[in-house]
Structures are given as structure tokens and as C-alpha cells.
Amino acid sequence: MAEKFHTDLEQLRKETLAMARFARNMLSDSLLALMNEDIDAAKEIVSRKMYIRDTTNALEERAYLLIAMNQPMAKDMRVIACTLKIIAGSERIGRYGKDIANMVKHIRGQPNFMQPLPIQHMADQVIAMIDDTLAAYETENLEKIAGLSFRDDAVDSLWHSIFRETLTFMMENPKTITRSTYYIMVARYLERSGDHACKMAENIHYMVTGERIEIK
Amino acid sequence: MSTEAIIQTENLNLWYGDSHALQSVSMVIPKNRVTALIGPSGCGKSTLLRCFNRLNDLIDHVKIDGKILLDKEDVQGPATDVVLLRKKVGMVFQKPNPFPKSIFENIAYGPRVHGVRDKNVLDSIVERSLKHAALYDEVKDRLHDSALGLSGGQQQRLCIARTLAVEPEVILMDEPCSALDPIATAKIENLIEMLKKEYTVIIVTHNMQQAARVSDYTGFMYLGKLIECGKTTQIFEHPKEELTENYITGRFG
After folding, report:
1. What is the pLDDT of residues A55-82, one digit of tens each?
2. Per-residue pLDDT for B39 more than 90?
């Protein structure tokens, strides 16, 4: 029985990782669609939300069943606890991707700013944080998430700077208010996605070592 | 461990003939707490338990060295009165083993052996012991019926009441629920929780969920050695030793 449980647990972990990477791609693709103002690509990203919703429910259900049927302990219990957090965090990241994709149609054709915002740069930072977090979940190599706290500070600074710059643009040229407002939301979603990566990383650290740390 | 120790072993070794059944076991049993001993069959849990009230004396070819201290006194010493020791350290076994006598007599037996003759005193000991074992309400109208007419779970609680009648300090339980159904098991587990207010309980169990539910401290044994001992929450959430981890996650045993 224990062998079947461990096989099932390993399978759950693999599928959770696949779902998490699917959600991560929704976020990175949505940024690409936003930068290119590509409405068709954005539509396709929005349609992926059904998969995220269904997979989240199915994976969670399987995790609960594994707990109910096997009363896992020690590392096994920590893997399931962490997996549930990875599922929840990834679902949020995927939904932010969908939300950003939804904005493309509203932004397209709106007057642009005098100079570009560092949105793509911020997105690259956040996506790299998510990638390293998921790699740590896969390999249990904690070095991947060792510097996450500093990287999250950098992302937070970008969010504040984009917010301030966007305000300036709006004051200088009220015609950019629509685009600016959406961009503030995009930056906010990216900042939140970085936080989700940190939260997932805390849980991965707990999964591997049994000790709790705080990444902020 | 922060609380006061009631039992302490130091470098305890035990041989059954040539077989080295306990190897340098040093552990502390805190007072008024529940300590669980877990480990695969034959790892020495029951042997260790039986050291605490010298039940191993009854087995031929047993050799023991090292120290077992109860209230800081050496249990193995020549000055130890074994009858008194077993009064202080009571035991409940895997299979309920009531005497083929009435419920009342089962409990009055121990106090009588220790010299209690007064009927009123015996009455109050029987009532108090049954209440402590959460059995009184179920049997108060048939105290003089045979104990063998009780259900398995009731018989086991009777055995616990019988142990409590001589006012022990420590209660040893060797797989006390393995012959019981889940409802009777739950009643014994609730009882263990109540007992620790006044007594120290040491329980051997194969059921790891039970160890996790009822105990404050857990010791994991393997091939005669105490591999790890600590707070139950720590042992079941993040054990320090890989062997413990592998055992409690069902990777062997």
C-alpha cells in the first residue's frame, strides 16, 4: 500500500508541476500579447482559464484523497501540504495571466506614452522567480530559491517606480489615462505573482527541510 | 525535555541468551505525559516497556546491564521490592485479561493484596477506579456480574481500572487497542488523554496514527536501538533521522 501511495504522490507532484508551468506560460504569453497588442493571442490565452480551473480542482481533490486514504506523515505530509500551496499559487498566477490578456482589447489603439515603461523588464524578473521556484519544487535544490527575498525587493521597487511614472504620464497627458490605469494593474498583478512565487518557495523550503522560513 | 523525568534509562542493554535485544538505550520518560514507543516488530519496544516494571525477570536467560531509574532510584537494585515496583508501575496488555471473577473483585484484588480489608474503603476504590477508567456508568448496576460478560473494549477499560486501583505512578500499555474495534479504541484513547493528568503513560503501539494522536513524546526504535526520541509533533512532522522518516512514511517496516 505504501508503495502505491508513494507512486501516486510522485504522479501528483509531476502533474502539479505541469499545471504550474502551464499557468506560468499564461502569464508570460499574456505579457507578449500585451506588448504586441495582439488581440487573437490574448483571446487564446483567456480560453486557457478553463483548463486551469478544471486542473486545479482535480489536483486538489486528489491531494485530499491521498490524505484521507493514507494519513501521510513527515516528508510525505509536507510534500502534500506544499503541493496544495503550489496548486493554489499557480492558479492565481494563471488567472493574472488571463486578466492581463483581457486588457489587451481595451488598450489596443489607446494613445501611447512618451517613453516605454519597464513592464517587460519587470515581467522577466517575475517569470524568472517563478521558474526558479518551480525548479526547486521539482529538484528540491534550495539554492534556486536562496536569493528570492532580494529579487522580490527588486520587483517591489519596479512596481513603485512604474506606479509613480504612470501617474506622471497621466498628469502630463490625460489622454493616456486609460492605458496608464491598465498598466498600473498589470504591474500590480506582476508584483502579486512575485509574492506568490515567494509564498510557494517558503513552502518548498518547509517541504524539504521541515523548517519554516519567511521570504518577503 | 522540559518536564520532570519520572523514568530514566542510561546505557540500558538487554540480552535474551545471545540475542542483544536492547542496545545502549538512554531515554527520559517525562512525568504526567504520554510517551509512545514505535518501531517495527521485534525492535525491542515491548522488551523496553517490560524493563520498567521488571517483567523480564520472569523470562529465563535474560541479562541486563545499564541503569533504569524510577524516581531517581535504581529499579534493578537489590533493594527494590518488585511487588511494590509493580504497584507503582502498572501494566495493561494487548489482549484484555480480566480475572474470571466479578467486575468488583477484579478491581478489589490488587488493593486486597496490598492489605486493604475494609469493605467501605474497597467500595470507594472500586468506584473511583471505574470512574477514572470511564467505565463506571456502564457497569454500576452490575458490579457483581462476571467481568467476562463485558465487551472487549469494556474489558480493556476494566483492566485499566484494575491497574488504577493500586494508585500507580506509571501505566505501561502494550498495544492496548490492537484487539479492539475503532469505537472502543477511541474510548481508550480519550481515556489516555484524561489519565495523564494524574499518571504517566507509556504506550507501545504499531499504529502510528494512534501514537501521533495520543502521545506527547515519541521514541522510535529499530533493531534494539533507540534511534530518535522527541516531541511527537516534531517526530511526525520533521524527524531528524532518516530511518525514522523512512519508517513513519511507510518506506519499510
Report:
1. 999 999 999 999 999 999 999 999 999 9
2. yes
Q: Cα torsion for B234, B238, B240, B243, to the nearest 10°?
A: 110
Give the CATH number of domain B5-98+169-248: 3.40.50.300
Q: Is residue B2 over pLDDT 90?
A: no
> In A, residues 78-137, which contact B (CB 8 Å cutoff)?
78
CA distance B225 to B42: 11
Q: Mutating which of B208, B236, B237 best tests the A interface, going by the most A Cβ atoms within 10 A?
A: B237
**Residues of A with Cβ-Cβ distance to B212 under 8 angstroms:** 73
Instruction: Report how far apart, in Å, the C-alpha atoms of B74 and of each of A190, B51, B69, B77, B125 are.
Output: 67, 12, 5, 5, 30
Inter-chain CB pairs, A–B, below 8 Å:
37
**Domain-by-domain residue ranges, chain B?**
5-98+169-248
Does A211 sit within 8 Å of B249, measured CB to CB?
no
Domain count, chain A: 1
Distance from CA of A81 to the nearest CA of B (A): 11
In 3D, which of A86, A80, A166 has the Cα closest to residue A119? Answer: A166
The answer to whether the Cβ–Cβ distance between B249 and A71 falls below 8 Å is no
| Structural domain includes residue A138 | yes
Query: Mutation test of the interface with chain B: which of A66, A73, A140, choosing the one with the most B Cβ atoms within 10 A?
Result: A73
Strands of the B62-70 sheet, one edge to the other:
B19-30, B5-16, B62-70, B73-74
Question: What type of residue is A106?
Answer: H
Here the CATH number for the domain that contains residue A51 is 1.20.58.220
Measured between CA atoms, the residue of chain B closest to residue A206 is B238
Residue A216 in any domain: the answer is no
Identify the contact set of chain B against chain A, taking CB-CB distances under 8 A.
208-209, 212, 236-239, 244-245, 248-251
**Which H/E stretch holds residue B231?**
strand B225-231
Contacts of A72 in chain B (CB under 8 A): 249
Q: Is residue A124 part of a domain?
A: yes
Q: Does A75 touch chain B (CB under 8 A)?
A: yes
* Distance from C-alpha of B89 to C-alpha of A11, rounded to nearest angstrom: 49
Domain that holds residue A94: 2-209
Q: What is the pLDDT of residues A96-153, one digit of tens each?
A: 999 999 999 999 999 988 788 899 999 999 999 999 999 999 999 999 999 999 999 9
ipTM here: 0.74
Taking only the tens place, the pLDDT of each residue in B137-180 is: 999 999 999 999 999 999 999 999 999 999 999 999 999 998 88
Whether A152 is covered by a domain: the verdict is yes
Considering CB atoms only, which of B212, B239, B250 is closest to A2?
B250
